Amino acid sequence: MNALQAGGQTTLDVLPAETTVVAWNLERCLFPGASAAHLHPVAPHVVLLSEMDHGMARTAQRHTTEEMAAALGMSYVFGVEFYEMDLGGETERTFCEDDFNARGWHGNAVLSAVPIQDAVLIRLDDHGHWFSAETGADPGQPRVGGRNAIAAILPGATGPLCFVSTHLESNADGVHRAGQFDRLMDAVDTFAPNLPIVIGGDLNTGNHMPPHYDWQEEPLFARAEARGYDWSANVDGFTTRPSLITNHPARQMKLDWICVRGATPSAPGILSSLGTSGHPLSDHDAVHVNITA
Q: pLDDT tens across 206-260, in order?
């Protein structure tokens, strides 16, 4: 649970002066090839992924990160967020042809067009939110593990940069997520001192915060700003939509973010997850931005 798996091949030696970064929660990644092709118009150099399956029946036992990296011509590091003990929820089971998981791994990843110089898996949760019924765990989704982040140091045109893919807790309130983000920032400072930092992923902002479920009430934003992070790498707009797995037609939330420190963001945007066939590739749209450091 503390190891990283690395693989893939790269197309560049160093990142360009202006680097394009995408953060995308791919909701198990049912369609790795189509998801990779969907990113081509954005032409990212770094892709920060969450909710990626490896050896799960619901995604045909595939290593979805490895397939996306191969399709994009990138290297990757993958880390396990949860060991899934069953096949998933009711809608996910409709995609299963097997009645077992070959590995049962589910986690986050960093994909890169350049060689990865160093990487670390940062565990953010010690509360067992998804394992203990006392903390509201879903009995239909038994799992062992907790939220994490993956930090990777990549060579850039003016020196190395650190890119972080993370996924904060949905089954908790903003105070808990702020504590996770504090833990993440501390770990990144230790791993990549004095380097430009880009953090992206599903921060689950607004989850379990009734009545309005408003991302603006999350304390993590101010805490990050106090430590030099810039949130201008994001545009207005919701980042969730109904999907083949998650059908909440009325739910609109802003969960996905990129923040930077020691670098200048430009041209932020949101990429719809609706594929060319019209079906959604995920219940999250992707967020992207250009970074100059």
A: 998 988 889 999 999 999 999 999 999 999 999 999 999 998 777 899 999 999 9
- Measured in whole angstroms, how far is the alpha carbon of residue 4 from the centre of its chain? 15
Classified as helix, coil or strand, 36 is helix
Distance CA 76, CA 115 (A): 9
**18: helix, coil or strand?**
strand
Distance CA 270, CA 274 (A): 12
Q: Which residues have CB under 8 Å from 231's CB, separation 6+?
A: 221, 224, 225, 257, 259
CA neighbor of 103 nearest in space, from 90, 92, 87: 87
CA 140 to chain CA centroid, Å, is 23
Helix (H, G, I), strand (E, B) or coil at 58: helix
Alpha helices for 50-153 (secondary structure H): 64-72, 90-93
Cβ atoms of residues 195 and 162 within 8 Å:
yes
Q: Measured between alpha carbons, how far is residue 232 from residues 112, 261, 262, 265, 269 in Å? A: 23, 11, 13, 7, 11
- pTM of structure: 0.97
